[in-house]
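Hi all, posting the design record for the shared folder.

TITLE: backbone redesign
STEP: 1 of 1
STRUCTURE INPUT:
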């Protein structure tokens, strides 16, 4: 499976392959652990479907779908 993080089903894991962010947004995502090669797991969606909680580097991070769409993943 390859695609974007927003399409990752709950309970599934993948590896980050690329980021479509620039400048400070890119730096922020890298600081949060969304670097190429990092493992990420979709943990839980809010009742209305946005945001989604992801496990990255032993941390839980909630991302809005618009941000998750800019993180490319591949199955691990």
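Okay, here is what came back for every position:
SEQUENCE:
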């Amino acid at each position: 499976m390859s695609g974007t993080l927003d399409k990752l089903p709950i309970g599934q894991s993948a590896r980050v392959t690329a980021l479509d962010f620039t400048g400070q947004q890119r730096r922020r995502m890298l600081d949060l652990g969304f670097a190429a090669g990092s493992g990420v797991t979709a943990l839980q969606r809010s009742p209305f479907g946005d945001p989604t909680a992801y496990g990255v580097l032993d941390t839980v991070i909630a991302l809005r779908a618009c941000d998750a769409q800019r993180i490319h993943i591949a199955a691990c």
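COMMENT: Residues 4 and 72 are 4 Å apart (CA to CA).
Let me know if anyone wants the other runs.
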